Amino acid sequence: xKDGFAHYMLKEIHEQPTAVANTIxxxxxxxxxxxxxxxxxxxxxxxxxxxxxxxxCGTSYHAGLVARYWLEAITQIxxxxxxxxxxRYRKPVVPDDTLFLTISQSGxxxxxxxxLRFAKTAGYLSTFAVCNVANSSLDRETDVCFxxxxxxxxxxxxxxxxxxQLTVLALLTLKLAEIKGVDPAVRTNLAKQLxxxxxxxxxxxxxxxxxxxxxxxxxxRDHALFLGRGVHxxxxxxxxxxxxxxxxxxxxGYPAGELKHGPLALVDENMPVIAVCPNDELLEKLESNIxxxxxxxxxxxxxxxxxxxHGLANRVNHLIExxxxxxxTSPIVFNVPLQLLSYHVAVxxxxxxxxxxxxxxxxxxx
Length: 366
Ligand code: F6R
Prior knowledge:
Elements: H1 8-14, H2 16-24, E1 28-29, E2 32-33, H3 40-48, E3 51-56, H4 58-75, E4 79-83, H5 84-87, E5 98-104, H6 110-119, E6 126-131, H7 137-141, E7 144-147, H8 160-179, H9 184-205, H10 208-218, E8 223-228, H11 233-247, E9 250-255, E10 272-277, H12 283-295, E11 299-305, H13 309-312, E12 318-322, H14 330-349
Parallel strand pairs: 3-4, 3-5, 5-6, 6-7, 8-9, 8-10, 10-11, 11-12
Antiparallel strand pairs: 1-2
The structure holds fructose -6-phosphate.
Residues 57-60, 104-106, 109, 112, 157-158, 241, 245, 362-363 line the site of fructose -6-phosphate.
Keywords: Aminotransferase, Cytoplasm, Glutamine amidotransferase, Repeat, Transferase
Subcellular location: Cytoplasm
Main location: cytoplasm
């Protein structure tokens, strides 16, 4: 049942604090990743990993893109991320000691399963998966499966599944950081950010009414551009995917530094530009990208935190301020208001939010 929510999607967005808490429960203790989550045999595989290949589709692919930023920055393990339907039909090179990692909510996505079946013949160290459905084909066929504890996701647009995938990938990054001997103070900080994540997501949900106000402006547009940099670039991609998928407004996500290489030509007073602007080491770069949009009259909507807002307040038309999280969990937190934005735009447009046209929840054909 929808528990009094108008749509499953809205219910599932609101379940995220609990879903994250459930996904972490029993897996983190005293700032260490528990053996119950990653036991000795799995840890032995992880000790050998020299490369990681992440393969997925759609929103799950975006989870993989975020994980690459984490894995390379924190553990220095070279990581590649690829869309399953591309990966399965080329001839990928598999260096020694490479780990294959599939991400899938349903565990039944045809292209992701085909990629896994290929990987099993391609000399990988092992095949790991992040999946929300126990006993799915993916769970049964992969060597190791880490389950997300999101509970059933009914809305076609993936929300809590992505958030819990990122939570599992963050735990895996933390485990690899332990194995690689990353500074314990750094690891403690990452673990703390994970533990406070449910509460911070809860705060983001309270922005609902403010987000509905800006949705009323975007609903009249035919296009939208989402911008982010660094680990928030995949969040811009995800924001654009959600908007196009459920509201049928054409949207694109771009790394903000790419604006002047083409998309800036699209920017005028009819183009809403939605920017993900946390206070991180790329903020100054992002501010100058935002200035490029402003100079062309683009309508700017910035998602900020209490530190990044100062430099942006007089540059953008609309500011939405989130509770500041640490830089590790920040992409998870900033994704939440973008989900709400797509949701409200779709509701105002009168589309079938839970069952968008032409789409299926589980893509079991290629
Ligand atoms: C978008 C969405 C899809 C899925 C994709 C992969 O909101 O839901 O892009 O993420 O079809 O599905 P899974 O994760 O089941 O492999």
